[in-house]
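2024-03-11 09:14:02 DEBUG pipeline.ingest accepted 1 chain
2024-03-11 09:14:02 DEBUG pipeline.ingest length=172
2024-03-11 09:14:03 DEBUG pipeline.predict start
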Amino acid sequence: YPMWVLYDRNVGAAKISLNEAMLQAEDFLEKHMESKMEMVTSDQYDNIGVFTYARLEDDVRIYPEVVTVKVALDNGDIMGYEGTDFLLAHKDERVPKFSLSDKEARKKLNPNFEVKEVSKALIRNDINEEVFCYEFFGTLGNDTYRVFINAENGNEEEVKKHPFQQEILQRT
């Protein structure tokens, strides 16, 4: 697995879409990584697309094992890759523990939270333990959030506020 890649150059005006850049990032990952990866965030800074991918194992997003790929929007060059978190946290197999159903976990959410996507996930909690969760991606008012509900006891493990991310919402 690569650890990091950095290609430093001036990036011209955007000529490709963020979606086309995402395809370049996924092509890079397919060529250089054996693990199946799924995009979890996409952002744009100036004329560079920044995509974060989590390893996918048995339809569970393994958040301790993430990589970030930066793609130039002028020609699709890979400008950067960061894989340190993936390398440090990588384990070949984890045994998923999902005692609750996603419907039971959904009952723990604010009733005004509009769920757009539900996924299974593994995160590290605030005491650095790995916890299997249901990840609810959605909106409350004008804000977009990821809410992680513990899949064994229903506790809210983490809430992340995010800028609106069209690519993820379109997958639902």
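2024-03-11 09:14:41 DEBUG pipeline.report The chain has four helices and nine strands.
2024-03-11 09:14:41 DEBUG pipeline.predict end
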